[in-house]
Design brief:
Layout (H helix, E strand, L loop, with lengths): L7 E5 L6 H11 L3 E3 L2 E3 L13 E3 L2 H9 L3 E7 L2 E6 H9 L3 E5 L2 H10 L4 E6 L3 H10 L5 H16 L6 E4 L3 H15 L7 H11 L3
Length: about 210
C-alpha cells in the first residue's frame, strides 16, 4: 500500500456529523475517486444496498475474514464490526485511483501505522446539540442507538488531535469547500505526480 500513486483520503467524524454527505459530494465531483466499501455486521438501513454503502456480513463471516487477514483494518464500533477489505484498496491504489475512507478513529490509527502516507481529516459537528439534531433528524436510528452513537462521539473527538486537518461541518458549503481544497492541495505533492516526474526526467534530464 506504500508505492502506489493513488491518494488515500481518510475521513473520521462522530456518527451523524455529515461525513457521508461530504464524501458523496466529493465522489460525485471527482471521478477519479473510489469510495472504500467496508464490510459490516450492522444490519442495512432502509435504502442501503449490499455492495453499495457496505458489504453486509454475518458475524461469523466477518470473523472468518478477519482471521484470514482479509482486512487492512477493522474495529468494533457501537457494538458492530466494521472492516476495510485489503485487496480492493490495494487494487484501486495500484490502478492510480484515489480512495476515500469513511472509518472510525481506531481504523484510522491502524491505517496510519501501516502506511507511510495518506491524508487524515477529522470533521467536527458544530455542537453537541446539533449532532443530536442530525442523528435524530436522519430518522435512521432509534433512541438506544442514538445514545450509543453520542457516547461514541466523545471517544472520536478525543482522538481528533492525531489528524492532519480539522473541518467543522456547520455550513455544508463551507465544509465542502474546505474538504475539496484539502484534496486538491494534497494532490500537488510530488509522490502523487509520477507522470510529471517522468516528464521532468525526459525533458530536463533531472534524476
Ligand atoms: P454521517 O455519515 O457522519 O453519519 P450523514 O452524512 O448521514 O452523517 O449526515 C447526518 C444528517 O445530517 C443527514 O440527515 C444530513 O443530511 C445532515 N447534514 C449533513 N451536513 C449537514 C450540515 N452542514 N447542516 C445540516 N445538516 C447536515
Ligand atoms: P454507520 O453504522 O453509521 O454506517 O458507521 C458507524 C461508524 O463506523 C462510523 O464512524 C464509520 O466511519 C465507521 N466505519 C465504517 N466503516 C468502517 C470500517 O471499515 N472500519 C472502521 N474502523 N470503521 C468503519
Amino acid at each position: 500500500m506504500t508505492n502506489s500513486t493513488g491518494l488515500m483520503l481518510v475521513i473520521c467524524a462522530p456518527s451523524g456529523t455529515g461525513k457521508s454527505t461530504l464524501i458523496r459530494r466529493l465522489t460525485n465531483e471527482f471521478s477519479n475517486f473510489t469510495f472504500s466499501i467496508s464490510c459490516t455486521t450492522r444490519p442495512p438501513r432502509p435504502g442501503e444496498q449490499n455492495g453499495q454503502e457496505y458489504h453486509f456480513l454475518s458475524q461469523e463471516d466477518f470473523c472468518a475474514r478477519r482471521d484470514a487477514d482479509f482486512f487492512a483494518e477493522w474495529a468494533e464500533v457501537h457494538g458492530n464490526f466494521y472492516g476495510t477489505p485489503r485487496q480492493a484498496t490495494e487494487d484501486a491504489l495500484a490502478a492510480g485511483r484515489d480512495i476515500v475512507f469513511d472509518i472510525d478513529v481506531q481504523g484510522a490509527r491502524q491505517l496510519r501505522a501501516s502506511m507511510n502516507r495518506g491524508c487524515f481529516v477529522f470533521i467536527f459537528p458544530p455542537s453537541r446539540t446539533e449532532l443530536v439534531n442530525r442523528l435524530t433528524g436522519r430518522g435512521t436510528e432509534n433512541a438506544a442507538t442514538v445514545a450509543k452513537r453520542l457516547a461514541g462521539a466523545k471517544k472520536e473527538i478525543t482522538a481528533s488531535q492525531n489528524f492532519d486537518h480539522w473541518i467543522v461541518n456547520d455550513n455544508l458549503h463551507t465544509a465542502y469547500d474546505q474538504l475539496r481544497a484539502i484534496y486538491l492541495a494534497e494532490k500537488t505533492r510530488p509522490c502523487y505526480n509520477a507522470a510529471w516526474a517522468s516528464a521532468l526526467r525526459d525533458q530536463w534530464e533531472v534524476t
